[in-house]
């Protein structure tokens, strides 16, 4: 089936930056985008400026430079509005929504992505529309709205398959695979992650491949195949480091902690979770930081830390998570706290 799909490309790289590869490392992407931004400013080309600032925003987001990413997408939107280009406005809003989701601001993410969807529809930009709807689906899934997320992901998958778009197909497959995994259907999750990995590899989508490898590693470790899971994570980590994918790298480390924990290597798990916590906090990504801290606390409990101290820290972590914005993450912390209380009873 993978041969039906074309080579991956990055539609968010626009204007004179269109020729950048989807797999270009993001420090290089940022440098080239800043050069194009300066040129567009000098020539007073509002559309080119909007396009360059969009790429600056995307590169900064991927690099974990959150404040710069936030300023850049807003500046991109202002330039697009000055150019009266609806398509460029939609892409800027998409980027703002994606950044908000990365920062754990799910309500804001849905607002910006919803606006992006509406503007993309007006602009008749089918790719911006697809990216916006995919972003909405991912945000709903992360927030815990599984039924609505599955419906959107399935519609997106059907459309991506019809158009033969590698990145969108991979994205939709990975979203559905994660929903399957959360529902406990490991066979279905494996099939979707494996197909996503194959399509991504054949289409040259290294970003998508890194995420698919992480999903495959998760399923393998849940089946008890810890060594193979760690091997896949190491391969994904190489991709993340080569492309400067800061957020993806942090989630890779968090998953490595999960695998080590399931293998009962608690000391190494605790060290790995601590690395992930530090990485997430450095880029102001609260959901990832909370999940990594949860793993860290559970590992330290296994290593013999006094239960009252762990209970206190779990309650403190719970208090940092907004019930609406981080519903799924909050439930995971609450489940761990309930389990601890049962053991102490």
Considering the chains and any ligands shown, give keywords for the structure.
mainly alpha, Serine Threonine Protein Phosphatase 5, Tetratricopeptide repeat, 345 residues, globular, 3 domains, 16 helices
Helix-and-strand structural type: mainly alpha
Give a count of the beta strands, DSSP E runs of length 2 or more: 0
The termini sit apart by 53 Å
Number of helices: 16
What average pLDDT do the residues reach? 93
The CATH homologous superfamily of the largest domain is called Tetratricopeptide repeat domain
Q: What is the makeup of the main sheet?
A: none
Radius of gyration: 20 Å
Portion of residues within helices: over 70%
List the uncertain runs.
none
Q: What gross morphology would you assign?
A: globular
Order of helices and strands: HHHHHHHHHHHHHHHH
Short recap of the structure:
It comes from Saccharopolyspora hordei. Keywords: Coiled coil. This protein is mainly alpha-helical and 345 residues long.
Provide a descriptive summary of the structure in words.
The protein has 345 residues and is mostly helical. The chain has three domains: 7-143, Alpha Horseshoe (Serine Threonine Protein Phosphatase 5, Tetratricopeptide repeat), CATH 1.25.40.10; 153-244, Alpha Horseshoe (Serine Threonine Protein Phosphatase 5, Tetratricopeptide repeat), CATH 1.25.40.10; 269-345, no CATH class. Helix content is 81%, strand content 0%. α8 (166-182) runs parallel beside α10 and α10 (206-222) packs parallel to α12 (246-262). The relative contact order is 0.08. The mean pLDDT is 93. Residues 23-53 form a coiled coil. This is Tetratricopeptide (TPR) repeat protein. It comes from Saccharopolyspora hordei. InterPro entries: TPR-like_helical_dom_sf (IPR011990). It holds the Pfam family TPR_12.
């Amino acid at each position: 089936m993978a041969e039906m799909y074309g080579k991956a490309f990055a539609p968010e790289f626009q204007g004179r930056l269109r020729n950048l590869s989807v797999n270009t490392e993001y420090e290089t992407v940022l440098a080239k985008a800043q050069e194009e931004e300066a040129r567009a400013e000098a020539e007073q080309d509002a559309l080119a400026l909007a396009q360059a600032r969009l790429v600056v925003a995307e590169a900064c987001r991927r690099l974990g430079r959150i404040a710069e990413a936030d300023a850049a997408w807003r500046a991109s939107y202002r330039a697009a509005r000055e150019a009266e280009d609806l398509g460029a406005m939609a892409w800027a809003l998409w980027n703002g929504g994606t950044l908000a989701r990365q920062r754990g601001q799910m309500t804001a993410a849905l607002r910006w992505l919803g606006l992006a969807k509406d503007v993309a529809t007006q602009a008749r930009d089918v790719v911006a529309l697809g990216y916006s709807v995919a972003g909405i689906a991912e945000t709903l899934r992360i927030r815990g709205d599984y039924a609505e997320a599955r419906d959107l992901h399935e519609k997106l998958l059907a459309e991506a398959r019809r158009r033969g778009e590698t990145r969108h197909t991979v994205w939709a497959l990975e979203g559905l695979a994660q929903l399957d995994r959360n529902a406990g259907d490991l066979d279905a999750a494996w099939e979707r992650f494996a197909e996503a990995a194959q399509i991504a590899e054949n289409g040259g989508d290294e970003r998508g491949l890194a995420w698919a490898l992480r999903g495959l590693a998760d399923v393998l470790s849940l089946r008890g195949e810890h060594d193979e899971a760690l091997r896949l994570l190491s391969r994904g980590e190489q991709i993340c480091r080569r492309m400067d994918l800061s957020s993806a790298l942090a989630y890779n480390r968090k998953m490595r902690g999960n695998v080590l924990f399931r293998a009962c290597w608690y000391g190494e798990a605790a060290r790995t979770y601590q690395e992930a916590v530090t990485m997430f906090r450095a880029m102001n990504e609260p959901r990832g930081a909370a999940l990594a801290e949860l793993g860290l606390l559970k590992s330290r409990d296994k290593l013999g830390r006094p239960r009252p101290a762990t209970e206190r820290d779990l309650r403190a972590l719970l208090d940092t998570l907004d019930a609406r914005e981080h519903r799924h993450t909050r439930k995971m912390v609450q489940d761990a706290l309930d389990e601890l209380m049962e053991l102490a009873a």
